[in-house]
Amino acid sequence: EAGVTQFPSHSVIEKGQTVTLRCDPISGHDNLYWYRRVMGKEIKFLLHFVKESKQDESGMPNNRFLAERTGGTYSTLKVQPAELEDSGVYFCASTRQVNTEAFFGQGTRLTVV
Amino acid sequence: GQQVMQIPQYQHVQEGEDFTTYCNSSTTLSNIQWYKQRPGGHPVFLIQLVKSGEVKKQKRLTFQFGEAKKNSSLHITATQTTDVGTYFCGVGSGTYKYIFGTGTRLKVLA
């Protein structure tokens, strides 16, 4: 069984540019989560999809962040325009059911310069 | 909103010493999970605790869920250099959201 995959693994962009991160969850996992870890600190919740529906996006920092999961398969997280404080590692995780083992992707390290 | 705190934030131990991290929630939990993230890696699931007072062991790791289901601990006996990393507890918050504690970064000195 393939794990959660994220693309790209690294991205360096200039302030004001746009970046789109992609996450492919494990097949059959309806729940998809986005998290961000900044400078080795806590893993901060961003949002949660159940299939294609956003169940909770209370962790999204502001309207520069847009997440989609069309068709309930892979998800994208777009940052537009990027700011310096958006730098960090963005993790995606998927679960078969809520409150079960979460499988994390390798993360995308985003650096905004 | 619900808060999950972990202590300590950092811990340096000599190889062979024991290590414990604590996870404390402001609300009663239905379950709690523990994850380990190696430096440069991604969080990897270790275990889930569900029952009040539950204790589970994985080799040198002992996990405990508090009687009131508001706290949990992870204890490592005789640490090894392979135990280095950040240990996170994870809890369900609300109906669907799943949040993580602040993490405890463990460094093992050989």
Number of discrete helical segments of chain B? 0
Structural class of chain B: mainly beta
- CATH-defined fold name of chain B: Immunoglobulin-like
**Alpha-carbon distance between the termini of chain A?**
37 Å
CATH secondary-structure class of chain B: Mainly Beta
Corresponding CATH superfamily of chain B: Immunoglobulins
Q: How would you characterize the overall build of this protein?
A:
- The complex is a heterodimer of chains A (113) and B (110).
- Chain A is an all-beta fold and 113 residues long.
- Chain A has one domain (5-112): Immunoglobulin-like.
- Helix content of chain A is 0%, strand content 50%.
- In chain A, strands 2, 4, 5, 6, 9, 10 and 11 form a seven-stranded mixed β-sheet that branches.
- Chain A is globular.
- Chain A starts with a strand and ends with a strand.
- Chain B has a single domain, classed as Immunoglobulins (Immunoglobulin-like), CATH 2.60.40.
- Chain B has strands at residues 4-7, 10-14, 19-25, 32-37, 44-49, 55-58, 61-65, 71-76, 85-93, 97-100, 104-109.
- Chain B is built from no helices and eleven strands.
- The mean pLDDT of chain B is 93.
- Helix content of chain B is 0%, strand content 56%.
- Chain B is globular and about 45 Å long.
- By secondary structure, chain B is mostly beta strands.
- In chain B, the strands form two sheets. In chain B, strands 2, 4, 5, 9, 10 and 11 form a six-stranded mixed β-sheet that branches. Chain B has a five-stranded antiparallel β-sheet with strand order 1-3-8-7-6, with no helix packed on it.
- The A-B interface holds A 31, 33, 35, 40-45, 48, 50, 55-56, 58-59, 91, 93, 95, 98-107 and B 30-31, 33, 35, 41-45, 48, 86, 88, 90, 92-103, 105.
